[in-house]
Structures are given as C-alpha cells and as structure tokens.
Write a structure and sequence with these properties.
It is a single chain. The chain is an alpha/beta fold and 239 residues long. The protein has two domains: 103 residues, Zincin-like (2-Layer Sandwich), CATH 3.30.2010; 112 residues, Zincin-like (2-Layer Sandwich). Helices cover 38% and strands 15% of the residues. The strands form three sheets. A three-stranded mixed sheet has the order 1-3-2, with helices on one face. A hairpin with a 4-residue loop joins β5 and β6. α3 crosses α4. The longest helix has 16 residues. The protein starts with a helix and ends with a helix.
C-alpha cells in the first residue's frame, strides 16, 4: 500500500463516518460498504453502463456490482449507494446527478444496424424514391428508404404510414402498404411526404416544434396527385 492509502485505511478502520479520498480503490469501497451495512460484502467493479449498480443478497452475504465511475464519487453519492444496498429502494437524487454529470465518461451505445430492404412484393421503394427525387428534388436528396418491420396486424388508420428518422437519415414505410389494393399514386404520396421531412428542417414557433410548417404544407400540394391521394387516404386510412 502507498502511504496515502495506508493512512486512509487506518483512519477508516478507526471510525464509521469516513471522508473518502477521490479515486478510491476497490478494497476501500468494499470495506466502506461492509462497515455501514454490517454484513460480509463482495464488491465487483465493472464497466457495465446498462446496469450501473446491482445488488444481490444470499443468506448473510451481499454481492454488489458497481460501475467504475463510482470510484471517484464523493461521500454524498456513496451514502446514497449504501442506502440503496441496504434497502434497494428510496430516493437517490445525488446518485442520479452524479451519473448525469459523468455521462461523457460512459461508452456511447453502438447504433443499431439498419437493414435496408426497399423491394416489396408490389412496390419497390427505391424506384419510387428515385422517380420522385428527380421530379421534385432535382436529385438532391440522399436518403435511405426501406420497408419497416412487420408486426401484429392492426388497422392501418391506427398506424403510422411512414416516418423519417433524422439520426439515421432513413425513411421507413409501413409494410402493410405493400398491397395490390394500394394505388401507386398513394404510395408515391406517402414516400413524397417523408422525403419532404428529410428536406425541410423542423420549425420552431412559439417555442413549439412544428413538423408540418407552412413551407411543408405548400410543397406537399405540389405533388401532382395530391388531391386524389388525400381523398383516398381519408376514405381508407383516417377515422
């Protein structure tokens, strides 16, 4: 042990109320939690950002798994962790504040890989996208487009027909629309609608987010079969 750790350890063994130095080590924390809880304790330091604190009690032993960022926690945070270990419930405002302030030290979750599947049984979304891109956007849009995942079959009017996700730059179209009963001009309009979302930034008005701005509505009506598509949607998709 270094002199500093030795000094800390001696102070710790002599008193219950401790003033732990920053950058604790695993042994010190285990002794600290064990002294407070009054039970034998097994402490494991992890890099698991999904489950940052987990507690399991078996007979007379407590097993604690703790994320490594807590090695630099102050007394207030350690006291809340101790309370959680003892009761497994209760308010933990200091703990939450500590985690939020150290988010930059946590590994960023890997983005889910997107499976791009534009070919359907009746419609090829890539062909529709390319056609609309040339006719209405001067081929300026570079966006991925795919059918969404199939899920239990609910009424279409209760579901989202299409969506655009800015983070992944992807348009998803509800796979329930890959149906011979859907007119092509309706499919084109649904894709065109999402392409507009990709092309037009969300507008803020009176501190509220507007995804369908005046510009959006104006450009939406440029689609050559706009009236027919809206009428068909009203009859089949909307309540």
């Amino acid at each position: 042990m270094t002199g500093a750790v030795n000094l800390f350890y001696n102070l710790f063994m002599g008193q219950l109320q401790l003033s732990l130095p920053f950058k604790h080590n695993e042994t010190c924390l285990r002794e600290y939690f064990q002294k407070i809880t009054g039970k034998p304790l097994i402490l494991t330091i992890t890099d698991n950002a999904t489950s940052m604190i987990s507690v399991k009690e078996k007979k007379d032993t407590i097993s604690v798994r703790l994320h490594q960022i807590f090695l630099s926690a102050d007394n207030d945070v350690l006291n809340e962790i101790t309370g959680f270990i003892k009761r497994k419930k209760g308010a933990t405002p200091k703990l939450r504040e500590f985690i939020n302030s150290h988010k930059d030290l946590l590994p960023k979750p890997k983005p889910k890989q997107i499976r791009i599947k534009p070919e359907g049984k009746y419609f090829n979304l890539s062909e529709i996208f390319d056609s609309l891109n040339g006719e209405y956007f001067n081929n300026s849009l570079s966006v991925m487009i795919t059918w969404g995942k199939r899920s239990p079959r609910y009424a279409v009017k209760k579901r989202t027909l299409g969506s655009y996700q800015k983070e992944t730059n992807t348009i998803r179209v509800n796979p329930i629309l890959d149906n011979k009963k859907i007119p092509r001009y309706v499919m084109e309009f649904i894709v065109y609608h999402e392409m507009l979302h990709a092309d037009i930034d969300t507008e803020l008005k009176n501190c509220r987010r507007r995804i369908h701005s005046e510009e959006f509505k104006k450009r939406e009506k440029i689609y050559k079969y706009y009236e027919r598509a809206i009428e068909w949607e009203k009859q089949h998709f909307r309540a």
